[in-house]
Amino acid sequence: MPDATQSMEAIEQPAVIKRGSRFSGYLRAISAMVWKDLTAELRSRELLSAMLVFALLVILIFNFALELDIRTRETVTSGVLWVTFAFAGTLGLNRSMAVERDRGCLDGLLLVPVDRSALYFGKVLGNLIFMLIVEAIILPVYSLLYDVNLFHPGLMAVILLGSVGYVAVGTLLSTMAVQARTRDVLLPILLFPVVLPLLVAALKASNGFLQGFNMEEIWPWVYLLIAYDVIFIAVAFMVFDFVVEE
Amino acid sequence: MEPIPKILKVLNWITSALFVVALYMVLFFAPREAVMGDVQRVFYFHVSAGWVGGLAFLVTAIASGVYLARGDHRWDQIALASVEIGLFFTLANIISGSIWARPIWNTWWTWDPRLVTASIMELVYIAYLLLRQGVDDPDRRARFGAVYSIVGFISVPITFLSIRIFRTIHPVVIGSSDPAAMSSLTMDPKMRVAFFFSLFTFTLVYVTLLWHRLRLQHLAERVEQTKMKVLSA
Question: What distances in angstroms separate CA A148 from CA A75, A76, B126, B139, B196, one per listed residue?
Answer without folding.
Answer: 11, 11, 39, 51, 55
